[in-house]
Each structure stands twice: as structure tokens, then as C-alpha cells.
Design brief:
Caspase family protein, 6-stranded mixed β-sheet, cysteine-type endopeptidase activity, signal, 9 helices, Rossmann fold, Metacaspase
């Protein structure tokens, strides 16, 4: 009887006082092996290679094997159930239940693209990065709005296994988007490009500096630079395959407990480089340099 009363009291304390409770990890996993081809052709004049996303279903299974989260803490959206509205609504639903110290993981496997910056918010670019949802693009602007609204007190990790995925997010101070060649004389662009190059050079040398200031913390894995294509086929996306390979080897040899985000990023970089694809890895937000030293995907 006393034990039941204590458990009830603890449960009640966990609602208003999250510091008394064990932080949780929530994941939104999106796999786009099917899109509304006709709508993209008529609305955007775009077409996409189906063969490149033939392994999306495998990717979803592989990332779940890596994360090893309780099913109730994972939301999977794919195909017709992963519309523009569905994806943003799922982010907001998770945002409505997370507490300070919880972790939010956003994973995407499918097509990525760049589109003209319609609302002109890209200070030093003419393009937005987008995810190709079932019915219409999810623009990086939209992701950024939700992150700023709900996820400023959580630990966040993005994994984008798609083309043009160098910066499918936004910075408060830096907007690191793809720049057309003709604009490279722009002084602001050169400053931002220098920041991108610095971060990627740090990854190349596995010597990391301070994170870029931002209102939310984010560990970011992108399959390739904003201007580049990513490898995908029946075996899955190259980023996910690389993550799974390293995870399986480390787990089987008892080394996974010694991994942190930086060690993982360096090994993924080396593995992907064999296929001439450049991992994009960013540490964003105050304190992320400490977060990067923690065991990956573990809260």
C-alpha cells in the first residue's frame, strides 16, 4: 500500500517538477519511399528518382535498431502518412510533451531538394533546403519555427539522409545555405562559407572547436552538402548504412559505451568518404560541445 502511494506521489511530482524525473528520449522517424509524383510535377515542376529511395523502409528499421527506444516514444511516418501537415504536426505534438532535459531525435530518409527562397529570409543565399514530403515540401524555415517554439530546453539531434542536407535547419547568427557560384563575391557569403569550411575542417581533423551560438541545442548529421546529391539505393541511404555498420561493430566488440557523437561522426566521415560522399556534422547551441562528448542517442 505504502509503495503504491509513493509511486503515485512520484508520478505527480514528475508533472510540474521534471528535474525529479528521468529524462526521456522521443524520436520522429520519417521515411519517404513514396510521394505524390503528379503533384510535385504540376506544383513544382520537379521529378525524383524512385531508385534512390528504394531502401527507405530498410533505413527506418536500421535507425530503430540503433536507437533502441521504447515503441511508445517513437513516431514513424512514411509514404502517404508523411504529408507536409503530418510531419509538422508530429513535431508539434512531441514539442507539447517534452520537458527540459528530454531528448528529441528527428530522422529523415528520402528525397531532399533546394528551392528558391520565396520569403527572402535567407540573408546570404537565394535558396531554402527542403524535405520532400508526400504532398509538398517541408521547408527549413518551418522546421526552424517549431524548434524555436518547443525545443529550446531539450537536447536535440537531427539525422538527414537525403540530398542537399548540409543545413536543413537555421542559425540565429549564421544562415549556412547553398550559394550560387555567381554570388560568391558577396562578402557576407564568404564569411558564412568560411564558417562552414571551418566546421568541416574540424571534422576532417577530428579536432572540434566551440559550437555556434543558437537558441536551441542541436547535434546535426547531414548526408551531404547543400549543393550535392546523396547516395541511396535498395541497401538504404549511405549515412544510415554507415551509422548502422559502425554501431553493429562497436556493439559486437563491446566498444559502443566508449563512443560519443564526435567519435561517431569521425568514423562515419571516414566510411562515407570511401564512396566520395562528405558527411556534414554540426554542433549548434550553447553547451553542445559538452553534449557532443556523451554517448550517442542516449539521454
Amino acid at each position: 500500500m505504502m509503495k503504491n502511494q509513493f509511486n503515485l506521489l512520484l508520478a505527480l511530482l514528475c508533472v510540474p517538477f521534471s528535474s525529479y524525473c528521468t529524462p526521456k528520449t522521443y524520436a520522429l522517424l520519417i521515411g519517404m519511399n513514396k510521394i505524390n509524383v503528379q503533384r510535385y510535377a504540376t506544383q513544382y515542376g520537379r521529378s525524383y528518382n524512385n531508385a534512390a529511395v528504394a531502401g527507405v523502409q530498410k533505413d527506418l528499421g536500421d535507425i530503430q535498431a540503433i536507437l533502441r527506444l521504447p515503441p511508445g516514444d517513437v513516431k514513424v511516418l512514411k509514404g502517404e502518412d508523411a504529408t507536409h501537415e503530418d510531419i509538422l504536426a508530429a513535431m508539434e505534438r512531441i514539442g507539447g510533451i517534452v520537458k527540459p532535459g528530454d531528448m528529441f531525435i528527428f530522422y529523415y530518409s528520402g528525397h531532399g531538394d533546394t528551392i528558391p527562397d520565396i520569403n527572402h529570409d535567407e540573408r546570404n543565399s537565394k535558396y531554402d533546403q527542403v524535405l520532400v514530403a508526400y504532398d509538398q515540401f517541408v521547408v527549413d524555415d518551418e522546421i526552424d519555427v517549431i524548434m524555436r517554439k518547443y525545443f529550446t530546453k531539450t537536447i536535440n539531434c537531427f539525422m538527414m539522409d537525403c540530398c542537399h542536407s548540409g543545413t536543413t535547419y537555421k542559425f540565429n547568427s549564421l544562415f549556412l545555405d547553398f550559394k550560387p557560384v555567381k554570388d560568391k563575391e558577396n562578402k557576407n557569403f564568404q564569411s558564412f562559407a568560411k564558417s562552414v569550411n571551418k566546421q568541416q575542417q574540424e571534422l576532417a581533423n577530428c579536432t572540434f572547436g566551440k559550437p555556434i551560438p543558437e537558441s536551441y541545442s542541436l547535434i546535426y548529421f547531414g548526408a551531404t552538402a547543400d549543393e550535392d546529391l546523396a547516395i541511396g539505393n535498395e541497401a538504404g541511404g549511405l549515412l544510415t548504412r554507415s551509422l548502422l555498420y559502425i554501431f553493429n561493430v562497436a556493439l559486437s566488440t563491446g566498444q559502443w559505451e566508449q563512443y560519443n557523437y564526435r567519435k561517431l561522426a569521425c568514423e562515419v566521415r571516414d566510411l562515407m568518404a570511401g564512396d566520395r560522399q562528405a558527411l556534414q556534422y554540426h554542433e549548434i547551441g550553447t553547451g553542445t560541445d559538452q553534449l557532443a562528448l556523451r554517448k550517442p542517442f542516449n539521454n
